[in-house]
Design brief:
The complex is a heterodimer of chains A (128) and B (484). In chain A, the strands form two sheets. Chain A has a six-stranded antiparallel beta sheet with strand order 1-2-3-9-8-5. Chain A has a three-stranded antiparallel beta sheet with strand order 4-6-7, with no helix packed on it. Chain A has a single domain, classed as RNA polymerase II/Efflux pump adaptor protein, barrel-sandwich hybrid domain (OB fold (Dihydrolipoamide Acetyltransferase, E2P), Beta Barrel). Chain A is built from three helices and nine strands, in the order βββαβββββαβα. By secondary structure, chain A is an alpha+beta fold. Chain B folds into two domains: 258 residues, Aspartate Aminotransferase, domain 2, CATH 3.40.640.10; 129 residues, Aspartate Aminotransferase, domain 1 (Alpha-Beta Complex), CATH 3.90.1150.10. Chain B has 484 residues and is an alpha/beta fold. Chain B starts with a helix and ends in a 9-residue tail after the last helix. Chain B is built from 17 helices and twelve strands. In chain B, strand 5, helix 11 and strand 6 form a beta-alpha-beta unit. In chain B, the strands form three sheets. Chain B has a seven-stranded mixed beta sheet with strand order 1-7-6-5-4-2-3, with helices on both faces. Chain B has a three-stranded antiparallel beta sheet with strand order 10-12-11, with helices on one face. Classes of the chains: A alpha+beta (128), B alpha/beta (484).
């Protein structure tokens, strides 16, 4: 099940919007496709990104994948817990497995994101 | 099984020294006072202990001498023993890298001739044998491309790789100082031309391609791609991982590639993987020759019948040294032997047989497991578990079940653009009977997976070590061994 309150990207990140701050993680589908996560490389706080930039890397037993920030902004918090327990991404992708919190510079960029319904359609399409 | 450190027993030395019958010397006086404070941690075992330890390890090892080894993209072909015989000749093995040039003329002649042969096979103007392995060759090749753009005043820092590329390609480009961007794959499994077109530009340094690519598909639009990239001022880099499909048929140089690296340990039947070392010679077109690493073997300008060849550092535009001496010469000797014994017709037949074997398996295995980009393949192809995924059976489970059935698993989860990929490359050295045996094994796995999926999910059952916790191995890696 895809949580209805979140926004999504075609690269299988989820975004939770709270005022001008967003939280970014990867979806349950993404963690399942990657398999057991073994290592996460995240940015420093205060680092600035433009929409579409890679902000980190997730390594699993199968592959290393880049994560992309869907909107422009500055990192305000990083999930340091993942350094020692990257498996949170597998066990709780929408909760303890969050990656970064970013403050928005341009809220209109959020309009590009998918809602849960559109994301579910994308998952179905990818299955086929 | 214990590691050798755990078997160590204090003061069980293999060697015994005669009683000291000369005046004792102060060791520190020899080293300017520098001495280590603690004893070196070396396992203490008898000769027999050591022999049994390594014999036991060797018995558990699996290689192409034991069984079918269809590791896609790795070309695990049989390594003829005559190659070993040649490389073991005393004239080669007792040669010290610091020996005067005139005493090494035979080896230098061989290396020089190997460079020429590789030029002929690939259609390049010049080769270096220095790189120690494939990824080292990639880095050398990309460094040459960087140097070329520097010399020509272009501020080109962007390199394209297809999304199906070997992981080493973007890594090597990044190591050589480039920003890497990926190009999409079209529905035929080839580079998507429109996507490539949109990524050209005056900051483009080049593109790295494997042809046939990692899906086992030949890039039929390669001439168009070369024209586009060259037109944009960029260069073409050929990853030679899949050269085994095209020897004697077509050449990277003729396709428009400017730099090529080869894996002698793949295409030219030298030992591979744990049996290495590898070798990753790099070839270039004539305008890049000046940038090749030094020293290079050249004709002696002085008329000296005892020393017609010398190593020369006199290439001011060279990217410099990339190896301590002259690359893995022992591997070069093996590859040279292989090429000379097969000859042009033999190499061509090797590629033909490799492609034939792959297509034979593609059609037969394709009846059991869906083939990704199902079309005439080159030397390898990719399948997926298909319907078995619904039973919770993944590629990893199938690979483990193959171990129980006595074959080495194929490459899994690569290329990344195919979910649950299984990449099969039989090579030319397997007989049709062996290929049929493999098909039967895959039929058996499919059958068991449908009727008793748990048996496949928990495999392997017949090995010394059962299913490994691969995540734990990566999350809490212990990569050093020692006492306590």
């Amino acid at each position: 099940m895809v949580p209805e309150e979140l926004k999504y990207t075609k690269d299988h990140e989820w975004i939770k919007v709270e005022g001008d701050e967003i939280t970014v993680g990867i979806t349950d589908h993404a963690q399942s496709a990657l398999g057991d996560i073994t290592y996460v490389e995240l940015p420093e706080e205060d680092e600035d990104f433009s929409a579409g930039d890679s902000f980190g890397t997730i390594e699993s037993v199968k592959a290393a994948s880049d994560c992309y920030v869907p909107v422009s902004g500055s990192v305000v918090a990083v999930n340091d817990e993942l350094e020692n327990t990257p498996e949170f991404i597998n066990s709780d992708p929408y909760g303890d497995g969050w990656l970064v919190k970013v403050t928005l510079t341009d809220a209109t960029e959020l309009e590009e994101l998918m809602d849960s319904e559109a994301y579910e359609t994308l998952l179905k399409e990818e299955e086929e | 099984m214990q590691v050798i450190f755990e078997k160590s027993v204090k003061e069980r030395a293999t060697a015994q020294y005669p009683k000291l019958d000369v005046e004792a010397m102060d060791l520190a006086s020899l080293t300017g006072g520098v001495l280590r404070e603690n004893d070196a941690e070396i396992p203490e075992l008898s000769e027999l202990d050591v022999v049994r330890h390594f014999k036991a390890l060797a018995k558990r090892n699996v290689g192409v001498d034991d069984t079918f080894y269809p590791l896609g993209s790795c070309t695990m072909k049989y390594n003829p023993k005559v190659n070993e015989k040649a490389a073991a000749m005393e004239g080669f093995t007792s040669l010290h890298p610091y020996v005067e040039f005139y005493r090494a003329q035979g080896t230098m002649k061989l290396l020089s001739h190997l460079e020429e042969l590789l030029c002929g096979i690939t259609g390049m103007a010049a080769f270096t044998l220095h790189p120690m392995a494939g990824a080292h060759g990639e880095w050398v090749g990309m460094s040459i491309i960087r140097k070329y753009h520097e010399v020509n005043g272009g501020k080109r820092n962007r390199v394209l790789v297809p999304d199906s590329s070997h992981g080493t390609n973007p890594a090597s480009a990044a190591m050589a100082g480039f920003i890497v961007e990926s190009v999409a794959t079209d529905s035929n499994g080839e580079v998507e031309i429109d996507d490539l077109k949109s990524k050209l530009g005056d900051d483009l340094a080049g593109i790295m391609l494997t042809n046939p690519n990692t899906l086992g598909v030949f890039e039929t639009k390669i001439l168009e791609i070369a024209k586009m990239v060259h037109g944009s001022g960029g260069l073409l880099y050929y990853d030679g991982a899949n050269l085994n499909a095209i020897m004697g048929k077509c050449r990277p140089g003729d396709m428009g590639f400017d730099v090529v690296h080869l894996n002698l340990h793949k295409t030219f039947a030298t030992p591979h993987g744990g049996g290495g070392p590898g070798a990753g010679p790099v070839g270039v077109c004539s305008k890049l020759e000046q940038f090749l690493p030094t020293p290079r073997i050249v004709k002696n300008s002085e008329d000296d019948s005892e020393m017609p060849l010398i190593w020369s550092d006199d290439f001011p535009q060279s990217i410099g040294r990339v190896s301590g001496f002259y690359g893995n010469v022992g591997i070069a000797i093996r590859a040279y032997t292989y090429i000379r014994i097969l000859g042009e017709a033999g190499l061509r037949q090797a590629s033909e047989d490799a492609v034939l074997a792959a297509n034979y398996l593609r059609v037969k295995i394709g009846k059991l497991f869906p083939v990704a980009f199902d079309r005439m393949c080159m030397h390898e192809f990719v399948v997926t578990p298909g319907e078995l995924l619904k039973n919770g059976i993944h590629t990893l489970d199938i690979a483990k079940a193959m171990i129980d059935r006595g074959v080495h698993p194929m490459t899994i989860y690569f290329p990344l653009i195919v979910s649950e990929a299984m990449m099969i490359e039989p090579t030319e050295t397997e007989s049709v009977e062996e290929l049929d045996r493999f098909i039967e094994i895959m039929e058996d796995i499919l059958d068991v997976a449908k009727n008793d999926p748990e048996l496949i999910k928990t495999s392997p059952h017949k090995t010394v070590v059962k299913r490994l916790d691969e995540a734990k191995a990566a999350r809490s890696a212990i990569v050093t061994a020692g006492f306590n």
